[in-house]
Prior knowledge:
- Keywords: Membrane, Transmembrane, Transmembrane helix.
- The chain crosses the membrane at residues 6-30, 51-72, 84-107.
- By secondary structure, the chain is mainly α.
- The chain has one domain.
- 75% of the residues lie in helices and 0% in strands.
- The protein has helices spanning 7-35, 46-75, 81-97, 106-124.
- Helix 1 (7-35) packs antiparallel against helix 2, helix 1 runs antiparallel to helix 4 (106-124) and helix 3 runs antiparallel to helix 4 (106-124).
- The mean pLDDT is 94.
Amino acid sequence: MKLWRYSGWMLLGTGVxxxxxxxxxxxxxxxRMVKEGLWATVGMDAERNAVFWFLAAGFAWMxxxxxxxxxxxxxxxxxxxxxxxxxLAFAAAGCLLAPDSGIWLFLPQAAIILAADRARHRDTxxx
Length: 127
């Protein structure tokens, strides 16, 4: 099975899960921000910044996953290995700094991208 064909969907799904957790855990904070009218309600408040950036990261992962899936569909091949290396570096740093988080989800995704690139180069190499 060529798991790389689903690389974009995996990252998009990670973003969806991330934002579901963010909404669940940050619901009270978001509610207070809504009551205050949303405009300029984050400020320098640490909790509000944490919720905002948590959700922003999830949306960025959803967008990146969608773009990866568009690439895969149009090109018919895995995304470039650079995507896997960036994802691996991000995951390694995150696992070191926050091992109790869900950042481990990025490790298999990075491995799938890197393995697909390696297999593609092996298959196209001459004798």
